[in-house]
């Protein structure tokens, strides 16, 4: 079948191609779309070299699936026309439709059933998707009542430009020169920045509110208390999250470990005696989310745990989740 990727030259776009191949998605023909500026360029993909086409709604509508790895504004302008009957199933990586009640917001291991007959499906925020992999099995078994997240987010969350700003900024810093931030609010090398996306009226950032609101929607738990402090750190492409949970039913670290060992898309890495715990470097390039440092909460006692989660932002947080959504809609 024909598969279209819009935003093919971005960091997420590149990973969508890789994941389609890695998951043996039935791609008959891959079509890559980007801005006029990139049209005509040949991109090397796991499906061979593909020439980039300038985006047009008509051309993308010839496909069976369309992955959008574009801005929210672009998605808002075009997604409905792309997904109208007769067009492709559209999977949008932007935040444009995530909280639209008529559009399913999906982490397939959690709520694939929510897709139903939708022709436009939203892919969640990366921090939300990575946390959801560990949290949902615990929610089903023990009933989450409170979730407190502190994130350590990689430069890739700001796309290829963010990764490049970190790389070049590190080189400058190591030469003793001052990098000038463009993508991030401050220089990222040797720094942490407690500011991702714009601040909102309640003092939280949009990124932090995405974790709250999207988790509630994906888990169908509108009253779940979720608070996040989102922080950018100078790592390249895996997000980490320290998470504290309170549960309705008693929970133990051993019980959680056992449960998470059999959870799809999760790898328990939790042997402190061997210095084995989740880290961005080991989670990078992996499809599974690493979960470890699981321990009884000193705050919530037998009704709570602390844990640490790492997941590849471009994969679990974007491309992999999008391809898994498409897989969930393939004819059985
Ligand atoms: C970030 N969550 O890390 C965003 C990307 N979607 O900046």
UniProtKB/TrEMBL annotation:
User: What is the enzyme's class at the highest EC level?
Assistant: oxidoreductase
Q: Any idea which GO molecular function terms this record carries?
A: aspartate-semialdehyde dehydrogenase activity; NAD binding; NADP binding; protein dimerization activity
Q: Which SMART domains match?
A: Semialdhyde_dh
Active site as annotated: 126 (acyl-thioester intermediate), 239 (proton acceptor)
Domain Semialdehyde dehydrogenase NAD-binding: start-end pairs: 2-118
Task: Give the E.C. number(s).
Answer: 1.2.1.11
The record ties this protein, via InterPro entries, to: Asp_semialdehyde_DH, Asp_semialdehyde_DH_beta, NAD(P)-bd_dom_sf, Semialdehyde_DH_NAD-bd, Semialdhyde_DH_dimer_dom
**UniProt record, GO biological process:** diaminopimelate biosynthetic process; isoleucine biosynthetic process; lysine biosynthetic process via diaminopimelate; methionine biosynthetic process; threonine biosynthetic process
This protein's UniProt keywords: Amino-acid biosynthesis, Diaminopimelate biosynthesis, Lysine biosynthesis, Methionine biosynthesis, NADP, Oxidoreductase, Threonine biosynthesis
- What pathway does this protein act in? Amino-acid biosynthesis; L-methionine biosynthesis via de novo pathway; L-homoserine from L-aspartate: step 2/3; Amino-acid biosynthesis; L-threonine biosynthesis; L-threonine from L-aspartate: step 2/5
The family annotation for this protein states: Belongs to the aspartate-semialdehyde dehydrogenase family.
Subunit composition and interactions: Homodimer.
Spell out the protein name for this chain: aspartate-semialdehyde dehydrogenase
Organism annotation: Diacronema lutheri
